[in-house]
Write a structure and sequence with these properties.
This protein is of the alpha/beta class. It has two domains: 216 residues, nicotinate phosphoribosyltransferase, CATH 3.20.140.10; 176 residues, Aldolase class I (TIM Barrel), CATH 3.20.20.70. 36% of the residues lie in helices and 18% in strands. It contains 16 helices and 18 strands. The strands form four sheets. It has a seven-stranded antiparallel β-sheet. The chain has a six-stranded parallel β-sheet with strand order 7-6-11-10-9-8. Strands 15-14-16 form a three-stranded antiparallel β-sheet, with no helix packed on it. Helix 10 crosses helix 11. The protein is elongated, with a radius of gyration of 25 Å.
């Protein structure tokens, strides 16, 4: 039955404009031309024509030299139960858009009867494109922050249905903690956060609010005071240090852009005044408008940690495309794309990538002179996932190991 028959004219009956797991698995979030393609193939008895399709991107956003692949687990869950074989880079793999010769790097290959899985091209790309963008921005910021703490809390800028994906992808990309309750659950960690300005405003007094926070919350919640609600940042920082003497872990500066001025100088001033009075151990956490371009100056100014929101949650998507490269075992592709199935070889040291026709001999890295590793692995066979899906913490560790080998 054509999906067009029940997509037209029916009133929307839900509270929120989101698709359910079942609707996504049924292909209802696809572009309509894929449904029409399925109908045509079925009519002409071509549904079982077997193809190989590759997922690649021509270039990365903003001139990024690399990206962190994310969304692989969801892509496998999308295709699970359908008669396809899937090969791909493992979740969290650092990749480049093109290899050392300029050939597009396939991050995933799907093989099967096209009429049986064509409805899933749209949602599969959506799962990979957005998660990869979020994970990559998180990784870029974490790379620049180094050992300093990075917390992700950009979910308030996006549709709440996306909170689990955003926080999981942020954590995989390298942030140390995330703010949403359900997002932390998806990442397998505890949620992290300090306090809002609203708490202090409701109390009408900074000290009373800080002490209430201290007296109410469990001891394993770090005492980090927000110190820019009513007075100058350094004044409130000293007030917090005195009010929670010995228990204050840090102060958070969330100065709005309209009042910020030179944020680096504010950090240096607060650090100086705290140190002068013996509060050397009180850390300075900063938030508000931080991204991969301005974080360097805040690191240099002496910030100990960062709360990063919109720049991660609203990260540019990676524009993956999914293209047929083989039909019934014969190489074929539209112009501009390289036909034939491929292997993806990567140097374990410098992480350079070499794409070769499938079955080619193992190449050596032209820079390091060592043998490369084939990183396009079998993930699914005839609709069954054949690999163990790693925990987010393990994926994050894999990402951080790779980040140590590259530059921004």
């Amino acid at each position: 039955m054509s999906q067009e028959k029940y997509l037209v004219g029916l009133p929307w009956s839900r509270h929120f404009y989101i698709a359910t797991d079942e609707e996504i698995k049924k292909g209802l979030t696809t572009d309509i031309y894929f449904e029409r393609t399925r109908m045509i193939l079925e009519k002409y008895r071509m549904s079982d024509v077997r193809v190989a399709m590759e997922v690649t991107c021509g270039k990365l956003p903003r001139g990024w030299p690399w990206a962190i692949l994310c969304g692989v687990e969801e892509a496998l869950k999308l295709l699970e139960g359908y008669p396809v074989d899937v090969y791909g880079l493992r979740e969290g793999t650092l990749f480049t858009s093109n290899d050392i010769k300029g050939v597009r790097v396939p991050v995933m290959r799907v093989e099967g009867s096209y009429g049986r899985f064509c409805l899933f091209e749209t949602p599969l790309l959506g799962l990979l494109c957005q998660s990869t963008g979020v994970a990559t921005m998180a990784a870029r910021i974490k790379k620049k922050a180094g050992d300093r703490m990075v917390l992700g809390f950009g979910i308030r800028r996006m549709h709440p249905a996306l909170a689990p994906m955003i926080d999981r992808a942020s954590y995989i990309g390298g942030v140390d903690g995330v703010s949403s309750i359900i997002g932390a659950e998806a990442a397998g960690i505890r949620p992290t956060g300090t306090m809002p300005h609203a708490l202090i405003i409701v109390f009408g007094d900074q000290v009373k609010a800080w002490k209430a926070f201290d007296e109410t919350l469990p001891q394993d919640v770090p005492r980090i005071a927000l110190v820019d609600t009513f007075y100058d940042e350094k004044v409130e920082a000293l007030m917090a240090a005195e009010a929670l003497d010995g228990r204050l872990v840090g102060v958070r500066l969330d100065t709005p852009g309209s009042r910020k001025g030179d944020f680096g100088e504010i950090i240096r001033e607060v650090r100086w005044e705290l140190n002068l009075r013996g509060y050397n151990d009180v850390k300075i956490i900063v938030s508000g408008g931080i991204d991969d371009e301005n974080i360097d100056e805040l690191v240099e100014a002496g910030a100990d940690g960062f709360g990063v929101g919109t720049s991660i949650s609203n990260a540019p998507t990676v524009d993956f495309a999914m293209d047929i490269v083989e039909v019934e075992g014969k190489p074929i592709a539209k112009r501009g794309k390289f036909s034939g199935r491929k292997d993806v070889w990567r140097c374990p040291e410098c992480l350079r990538i070499d794409v070769e026709p499938i079955g080619s001999s193992r190449p050596s890295c032209p820079s390091c002179g060592i043998g490369m590793e084939n990183i396009l692995e079998p993930l699914m066979k005839d609709g069954k996932i054949i690999v163990d899906l790693p925990r987010p913490s393990d994926i994050r560790s894999y990402v951080l190991r790779q980040l140590s080998k590259v530059c921004i």
